[in-house]
Specification:
Elements: H1 15-29, H2 73-84, E1 89-90, H3 100-103, E2 113-116, E3 119-124, E4 127-133, E5 142-148, H4 152-162, H5 169-179, H6 181-190, H7 201-210, H8 216-227, E6 232-236, E7 239-242, H9 247-250, H10 255-260, H11 266-278, H12 284-290, H13 296-303, H14 311-321, H15 332-342, H16 353-367, H17 371-382, H18 384-414
Antiparallel strand pairs: 1-5, 2-3, 3-4, 4-5, 6-7
Helix pairs in contact: 5-6, 6-17, 7-14, 13-14, 15-16, 16-17
Catalytic activity: 2'-deoxyribonucleotide-(2'-deoxyribose 5'-phosphate)-2'-deoxyribonucleotide-DNA = a 3'-end 2'-deoxyribonucleotide-(2,3-dehydro-2,3-deoxyribose 5'-phosphate)-DNA + a 5'-end 5'-phospho-2'-deoxyribonucleoside-DNA + H(+)
Enzyme class: lyase
Organism: Dendrobium catenatum
């Protein structure tokens, strides 16, 4: 857009035009509103993040490392216009095989953000994606938008791997439903699509170290702080996104600095895990990747050698990043599911490591080699924080399908 140049003084302009000039002047002076997150790094408490950072924004000089969660009005509008003018690409996966609200915000990962009514944005390796279901498509196929990547074909392959798309849910869920009436009930309500992700193991380890005795909102903030030390990839919907940092970049953060940022006792485990992984033969990345080819019990024992990793966190890492499809993370939610539907004789008993092992065994005996996927669906079905949200999502989906069918019937009648 070209600049407007007026040959006469502003006071001689029409009243409406003077008002327009005043508004534009205010927009140019508009500062980014202060972030809302309580996790703040002070100038003396944290080293500077990696040099590749978001475009410089005006901020309070007393908190230069404050987590950036908002942008100016003008930047948001310009970004929205740019995205609207570019194309989304078809991933060609129906909702029955991938339901975004049943997969991304349900406790497997804490790095995706809702950036639109039916849109989620997140990072896969060095690639920044937005995903959404096509409203006009009765099957609800997923479309993706690539915001940042140096290689589009590589990005698409990375996304497919991350979403575990080689695994088909249709036959799997049919077998689960035949094996367990509770699963059958939940699967009918969800109508498919709850997948288990295949995340980067390093990223997964530190996400679940942050999850210990914590709630989702605080986990997301802590993971966001750690992520901010990685390469900046872009901003979408008011959120800034970074590639998850390497162990080398994370190693510059001290325990005290993390405690001051609100990590509490988890700070000690995060720093300890970084050092332990760096000391592994071949380095932490290679060591974690090697666990994908090992037996589950050996994987769990290896992960529990890391500071702060117990049986439950180890099972989460194994299931969500290491191809251990029958790993069962037993927490209070899964314990309640087991004692209510599978092992009522344990109702009222205290959850112990020995009984947790029995719970994992009954899941595997019931659902087989993909028992972790079945457990994940049952887990989502029991989360109070998800029930209202998922019910609304499912109703919206069914209403959309109903409208499409009615329109289709009208067309048939006219013909």
């Amino acid at each position: 857009m070209r600049s407007l140049v007026f040959p006469c003084p502003a006071q001689h302009l029409p009243k409406q035009l003077r008002h327009f000039c005043g508004v534009m002047s205010q927009l140019r002076r508009l500062k980014t509103p202060p972030p809302t997150t309580p996790l703040i790094f002070s100038a003396t408490s944290l080293p500077s993040p990696h040099p590749t950072t978001p475009p410089k924004e005006e901020s309070n000089s007393s908190a230069p490392f404050r987590s950036r969660t908002q942008r100016s009005l003008t930047t948001s509008l310009l970004h929205s216009a740019a995205v609207a003018g570019r194309d989304w690409q078809l991933l060609d996966v129906p909702r029955s095989e991938l339901s975004l609200p049943l997969t991304l915000p349900t406790g497997q990962t804490f790095r995706w953000r809702r950036t639109g009514p039916s849109q989620f944005t997140g990072v896969v390796g060095p690639h920044l994606f937005s995903l959404k279901h096509a409203d006009e498509d009765p099957s609800g196929r997923v479309h993706f938008f690539l915001h940042h990547s140096s290689d589009a074909s590589c990005a698409r392959a990375a996304l497919s791997d991350y979403l575990n798309l080689e695994v088909s849910l249709t036959a799997m869920w049919r077998g689960f439903s035949a094996a367990d009436p509770r699963f059958d009930e939940i699967s009918r309500r969800f109508d498919g699509g709850a997948r288990v992700l295949r995340q980067d193991p390093v990223e997964c380890v530190f996400q679940f170290l942050c999850s210990s005795n914590n709630n989702i909102a605080r986990i997301e903030k802590m993971v966001g702080v750690l992520s901010s030390f990685g390469e900046y990839l872009g901003s979408v919907g008011g959120f800034h996104f970074h590639q998850f940092p390497t162990l080398e970049r994370l190693s510059v953060v001290s325990e005290q600095q993390l405690r001051e940022a609100g990590f509490g006792y988890r700070a000690k485990y995060i720093v300890g895990a970084i050092k332990a992984l760096q000391a592994k033969p071949g380095g932490g990345v290679e060591w974690l990747a090697s666990l994908r080819s090992m037996d589950l019990q050996d994987v769990l024992e290896a992960l529990c050698s890391l500071p702060g990793v117990g049986p439950k966190v180890a099972a989460c890492i194994a299931l969500f990043s290491l191809d251990q499809h029958h790993a069962i993370p037993v927490d209070t939610h899964v314990w309640k599911i087991a004692t209510r539907y599978f092992m009522p004789e344990l109702s009222g008993a205290q959850m112990t490591p020995k009984l947790s092992t029995r719970v994992a065994e009954i899941f595997i005996a019931t659902f087989g080699k993909y028992a972790g996927w079945a457990q994940n669906v049952l887990f989502i079905g029991e989360l109070p924080s998800q029930k209202a949200f998922l019910t609304a999502e499912m109703l919206a989906s069914k209403n959309t399908k109903s409208v499409k069918r009615k329109r289709s019937n009208r067309k048939i009648e006219v013909q």
